[in-house]
Structure formats: structure tokens, C-alpha cells
Amino acid sequence: MQINRSHVLAWGACWTIFSSGLFAAQNALIVIGTTGSSSVTAELAGAAADIRDGLVQRGFAPKAVEIQKPGDSGGRVTAERVLQGLDRRRTLGASDEFWLVLLGFSGRSEGGQPAFQVSGPRLTAAELKAALDTIPAAQFVFVGTSDSGGFVPILLAPRRTVLAATREEGEIDLPRFPEAWAVALKEKRSESWAAIAARASALTEKAYVEGNLSAGEHARLGDPATGRILEAPFGADSVATAARDSGPGGAMALLDASDIKVEIQKPNAEWEEQPATPETRALIAAARSAPNPDGFSALLLDQRLGYSVGDDRTAEAFVMRRIYIAREDGVERWANFLLPQDPPSVTTKLGAARIIQPDGSATVFNPAKVPAGTDVSGGMSNAVTSVFMPDAHAGCLIEIAYRTRFALDARRPEFSEELSVQQDIPAFQTEVQLQVPLKMGLHFKLSNSDEKPTEVAADGMRVLSWKLPFLAAFEPLPYDPPARELEVALDISSLDSWDALAAWYRRLTRGSDAQDPAVQAKAEELAAGATGRLDKMRRAYEFVSSLRYVAIEFGVNGIRPRTPAVVLQNRFGDCKDKANLLIALLGDMGIQGQFCLLNRGSSTDVSFPGWQFNHAIAYVPKAPLEGQPDDLWLDTTDSTAPFPTLSPGDVGRSALVFSSDSARFIAVAEAGNEVTEFKENWKFTEAADSGWSGTLQSSWSGLAEYGVRSSMRGLSPRQRDFVLQSSLNRQLEGADFSGLALSAPDDLSVPLRLDARATLASVPFPRPGYEVEACFAAPARDRPLELNNGQKLHLIQILDLIYAGSGPASAPAPFAEETAGVRVRTSWNRLGDQEWRRTAELDIAEPRIAPSDYAAVRRILRRWVDQTRR
After folding, report:
1. What DSSP letter does each residue of 498-560 carry, written as one string?
2. Are residues 482 and 549 located together in one domain of the fold?
3. Domain tally for the chain?
4. Each residue's pLDDT tens digit, 779-790
5. Is the pLDDT of residue 241 over 60?
6. How many percent of the chain have pLDDT more than 90?
7. Do both 111 and 212 map to the same domain?
8. 323: left (phi > 0), else alpha (psi -120 to 50), else beta?
9. More confident site: 795 or 375
10. Mean predicted confidence (pLDDT) in 394-419
11. What backbone torsions phi and psi does residue 488 show, to the nearest 5 degrees?
């Protein structure tokens, strides 16, 4: 559930694909399904030919556009044939572009799912999604069929834009939209996907008006960036120009770009070359002299970040940066800027852009030549303004300033924002400015910084300003605590208290727990034959976990759970939907569960009321008299974590737990003595001539089991063996493993266990299954280290060695050390004249290692690992 909206000021770092000309390869598949009429098929074949011609005019190679139609050389058009065509596109790369066009009729499969009509079994939206998900390229899907709107929410994905010719239901006639779309594609062959769709919509509407007919189709466009499903004209209209040209005014003015001294001399040129001046020579000389002892690829010499909120629930962000490119690998990160456009809700206006060469000459961009939005065809974002600095290389100085205006999220009470200040390169000076109306209640906090703001009031506005003389680079490391605990950021909120947020959320979700007889019947079915409270909970948990996780989060459903009845009927949902269904099922079993919000994988500052949540789970308070001795936190988001294990990123988070009339924060914790556990039993026998052979039995629980199950998901048997053998070979180098038998990783009701056989030339001393050495690779650390995702861990490895002769007369002395909540032990015991047993154990009771304890913990863990290798 992605419901934490953050307007990060570093828009230049967005990962977005632009116009089709920037793709390394362009490929398309056009499919005509079964129509039941030769004349209709012929009509659609003409539309397909026109679409192919439009794609060729757009820049596609003719041989890269494939058409599948009934009666061609491929024979019938079947679901299998279409899927094979998609499978051939798996070789496309992430920088490539793929278009899929479906023409004909759609309906519903036996399960009620949208399906494309072909010969034989229909091609369902789920099958289509699964095939498209294997193609790395940016994707553009046009379902130009009847009853096609239902495909959009299922197919929509971050790298996939989806267009449907009709609404989801009720528009069952062959649409006119595909023919209009073919015309629009040729008219606007260099324009964006949304612009083409908008033109096609206008042409379709015109045809209905001129024919004096009532419109029988209404196209829909799925926006991959916001998850919204848009009606025509899909955001591609004159609003963009009006919003861009109007600009902010009055009290909304923020920091400006006056320090970038750009004078446009050629008003008709997009870029112009200008000779060196004393000012540019001084700037480049100062940049070259900036200290860079750590060898960063770029240096942020100056940045100014502004944020302003108006009375009309609009906000504005300003960014100005001056960046010195120290190495060539800094060019891609810091010389290409993608400025967001999603009019009318988001518009960006470029203030200035300049690149200064090492000799002081400059290339200046004319802001008047910036288009409203260059393209949305990247499949990953709304329309964007692209600013690519020409001839950027090491030794150049990049200057850019822009202003973004947007509407605050109307679904939320007041407003709550988190603005990134710290970058991944050092900033020599930073100014942050915040401007809000005096009458607006406001909380603000510059997290992870001791700098205090100056404050002034003027024209009814309150202006706060922070000046940071030097800001170190934020360099995330493996095993870090959540970034929110380390990174400098500006948090802003107008929420008075957590109680106010809880009251609003309860109002928003009122009625979302409504049930129907189907939910109650499912609860009775699951509880039938259960041996007690925990068994009922386990059954309900495993059922809800098995439902597909699908995040369709646009509109209010981005933060309001769907009802249990809807989720049960759909057999899919996102985290909040599945948590809501689980609580309903438990309630019907007489077990009271509570809905929780938390910031999975991150953290929540409970001292700062604001929207800081991205996840939802269920909480069931302990009931010792009913057989539940511990509080249980149940996360049904995926089907990987066995009951009652928590998924990674949950433990230790502060969860906002809702009861019928209140909400409170509780720290998420494992159930009772729940730990991550590794159990390994190795048994080897020495051959009379030479070499060793033996067996391994491994089992896991907690996060270890979650990790193994996750790594096995979707793998074929041979792929699974390869992954297991690779892991085992890291534990026991030089061994050959065979006979690998792993219990079903997708069945949560069966404990996970691995059995294997192994042969080895020398005496076997396997490493521990938990690779602690990787966690402590660095000799020192200046921040906490979080082991095992913050959860307790226990490992026990038993090694039995049966020698061909009498074996060694003695074994190494026992080893045992403990520090900072980490305990290690290794011991040897003689089991017989020829048999010895080595037992190695690791206990981590305090998974977060403080920097002051790091060296001591590293030392004893290294010594313990060394003990296990001899």
C-alpha cells in the first residue's frame, strides 16, 4: 500500500523514460481476435495496417511490427499464439520500447475476469499481465476492443501505460476508437501517448456527433505514475499551457534563480553558445578548487530548496542547484533533469539552465522553449519536461533552477509532506526555506540536523529559513537502520495530533468492515475442525495470505480498505484490503483483531503527527486463558511468511493500532520467543581409501524460512537446485551436492526442510548458514548495524564425523564468548571410538549493534567462524 506521498525536491533524480526516440529498440505486436464476421475482420485488418504504418512513421522498423490475424500464415489466433508472441519479446531490454495492440471483442472469462476473444479459450487479463511482466521494456498497451475498460486496473504497472477503448462494463459493441486512434497516431507521430489518445477521443466524439448518434464508448487511460484511471482528454489538453504560463504570484513567491546569470541572446534557439566571461571563469575556477578528498563523482556546490503552502490547498516547490561534475560517471546522474508535469494538478516551470565548460564558455537553455510536457510514453511517469545538458563531461559546472506547483492531496486531512534535503553527494552550502500562511497551524522538523531556523513574518505569511554550511553526502550502507533515522529531511504537517489523524481515518474507513453471508460462511468453513484459538487464527491467516496481492491504489482506495466481501469475491487485494478481510474472518470466529498502520521498512516519528504510513497489518491482543499467550501481529501481504512469522520490515516499527473508539502506538514485536532459527545437521563418514560422504538436514523458521521460501518462488526444479547448490557450496567449498529434496516452499502449512547428500575429498568443516562475515566486512562503522532485519536469531549447526580409523586423539578446546547481546559457542564431544560431534551455536538477542559495540561483536564473530572451519 503506497499511501505515503512525498514531494521530494530532487526531481532531477527521477527514473523515467521519455519520448520514443530515446529508446534503444522499438517493437510492436498487433493482434486481431476472433470476430465471427469476415467483414469485421477485414475492417480490423485495415485498422491494423494503418496502425503499423503509423508506428513506422513514428520510427519503428517495419520488421519490428508484427500483426497476428485470423487466416494469416500463422493460422488461427489463439491465446497460446499471442502468449508465444509476447514471450519472444522477453529479449527486449529495459531501455527498449514495446507496444501491444489488441483489436476485436472482449468479454468475461468463466471466473468473471476480463478476457480477449480469440479462437479456443479466451486470453484473460491475468494471463496477459503475467506475460507482460516478463518483458523488461517500457510498455504501451492499447486494448481496442469492446468491454475493454476492465483490463486497465489489472494491467496497469509502473512501466506500463494502458489505454482501453471503452469503459469497464456495458459498452459491448465494436468500438470506433481504434480507427480514430490509427488516424491520431499518424497525425501526432512524434507526440506523447496521452496526446495521441486525446486526439483519438476527439475524433471518436466527432464521429458520433456528425452521425447524430449517442456515444456508445468512453475510452479510459491508466496512468502508471499515479495509478489513476483517467477519462478523456487524459490530461493532454490546453490546461497544461495555461497552468504553465500563469505561474505563481503574490505571497507564493519563494527563493529565485537570480544567481544563475543567464541572458538570452537568441530567443528562437533552444540552446545557445556563449563565450567565457569573468563571472563564468570565476565560477569554474571555484568549482575546480572545491575539496573532494573522497573522490565523489560530483559536488553540490550550492543548493536552495523552497516550499510554500497557500490557503487554497496548493503548494509550490523551488529547486536551484549548482553542481560540479568531477568524474564522467557523474554526468548521467547530474546532467539530465526530468521535471514533472501532470496538469492541472502538477506543473513545472524552468527558471534557468546553464552548463559552464572548463574554459568558462557556456551553453544556455532558453526556458521559453521548454514544452508543456515532452512525453508520457515512457510508461513510468506523467508527462515531463526534459532538460538534457549538452556536451556535459567531467570538469563542467551544471546550473539549474525550476519551480513546481501542485495541488495537495485532497484525500488527506490538512497536509503532511516529507522533503528530502540531503543528497548522495556532499553539499557545500544549502538553504531551505518554508513559507506558510500565518493563520495555518503548522508543525515542522528538520530531521537529523541540529540547525535552527530563522523566522520572519510578512504579508500574512510565515517564512522559516535554514542555512546549512556543509551537508555530508548521504551514503546508505547494507544493514543500515531505516533511512529516515539517518537522512536530513524537512517534515511538514498541519495535523494537530495523532488523535486528529485517527479520528479522520476512522471517518474515512467507516463502513469498510461491512460483511456479507459469504464472509461469514468462509469463516465457518475455515474454523471447522480447528483444535483451538491459534489453529483458527492460523487457518484464517494462511487463507488470506494465499490470496493474490494486487495494489490498485487510485482515488480514495489508495488509503481506504475495500470491504471484506469485495476482497473475498475478487480473491485479491493490497495490504490494507487483506488485513481488513483477516480481521473480519477472525471476528466471525470470535477473535477480536485490530487494524494497524505502520511504515514498513522505514520508521515513524511518533513525536511528529503526520502521515508516515505505507503499510497495514492486523493486531490480535493476547488472550492467555483462550490459548494465545502472546500478542500477535499478522501480515498477510504475501504468501511467503508462515504463521505467525512477520515479514521483513515490520518488527520494531511503531504501529498505529485502531480500536472502536481510539488509536494508539504499539511497537511491533515477534510473538513471545519467536526467533529466526537455522538448524543444520551434517553427518559425514570417511571412506576407507579416501574422501568423505554424508548427508545434510536443514530447517528454518522465522525470517530464515521467509528468505528461503522467497528465493524459491517461481523457480523451475533445475533452477531451484542451482540456487540451493550455490548456497551450499558457499558453506562447504569443494563439495558435490546431490539428491536435494526441499519441502514445498509455497505450502505454508508444511515446515520447510532440506535434505541433501554430499561428497568431499577433505575433512568437511561447513561454514554457518547465516553469513555473518558479510555483515561485518568493514573494520569500523559510524552508524548502527541492524542484523536479521531487527529480529532475534539463533543458529545451531551440528557436525558428526565418523572416521575410517581411530580419528584424532583430541579436539580443539571449547570456545565461548558474549558481548552486546551476541553470544557464540563451539564445542567438541567424542561419541565413540571413531566418531566426533562438533556443535556450533550463535545467538543474537540484540539485533541492532551500536557503533561503539561494532568492533567487539565483529571480533568474536570472526573468531567463532574461524573455529567452525577447523
Report:
1. HHHHHHHHHHHTTTTT---HHHHHHHHHHHTT--SHHHHHHHHHHHHHHSEE-----GGGGTS
2. no
3. 4
4. 999 999 999 988
5. no
6. 51
7. yes
8. beta
9. 795
10. 82
11. -75, 125
Question: Distance of CA 644 to CAs 539, 705, 748, 811, Å?
Answer: 11, 12, 11, 41
Q: Which residues contact 628 (CB under 8 A, 6 or more apart)?
A: 533, 534, 537, 620, 622
Q: Quote the domain boundaries for residue 781.
A: 676-868
The top-scoring range by mean pLDDT among 140-144, 311-315, 549-553 is 140-144
- pLDDT on residue 78: 93
Adjacent-strand bridge partners of 324: 299, 397
State whether 256 and 228 are in the same domain.
Answer: no
Average pLDDT, the chain: 85
Nearest to 823 by CA among 839, 841, 838, 799: 841
Would the pTM count as exceeding 0.85? no
| 77, 70 contact by CB (below 8 A) | yes
424 pLDDT exceeds 90?
Answer: yes
Q: What is the DSSP letter of 487?
A: S
Which three three-digit cell numbers place residue 741?
Answer: 529434496
Cα–Cα distance, 461 to 252 (Å, whole number): 9
Helix (H) or strand (E) holding 648: none
AA identity, residue 726: S
Residues 681 and 708 in one domain: yes
Q: Cα torsion for 76, 167, 579, 408, to the nearest 10°? A: 130
Query: Per residue in 476-509, pLDDT tens?
Result: 999 999 998 999 999 998 888 898 888 888 887 8
**Best-predicted range by mean pLDDT (59-73, 197-211, 284-298):** 284-298
Q: Which three cell numbers stand for residue 8?
A: 521530494
Q: With contact defined as beta carbons under 8 Å apart, do 28 and 64 qualify?
A: yes
- Order of all β-strands in the sheet with 114-116: 106-108, 114-116, 123-124
Contact between 836 and 738 (Cβ < 8 Å): no
How far CA 433 is from CA of 40, 179, 402, in Å, comes to 62, 52, 15
Characterize 622-632 residue by residue with b for buried, 16 or more Cβ atoms within 10 angstroms of its Cβ, and e for exposed: ebeeeebebbb
Number of residues that make up the chain: 870
Domain of 381, CATH number, reads: 2.60.40.3140
Q: What is the pLDDT of residues 273-303, one digit of tens each?
A: 999 999 999 999 999 999 999 999 999 999 9
CA angle 758, 764, 770 (to 5 degrees): 85
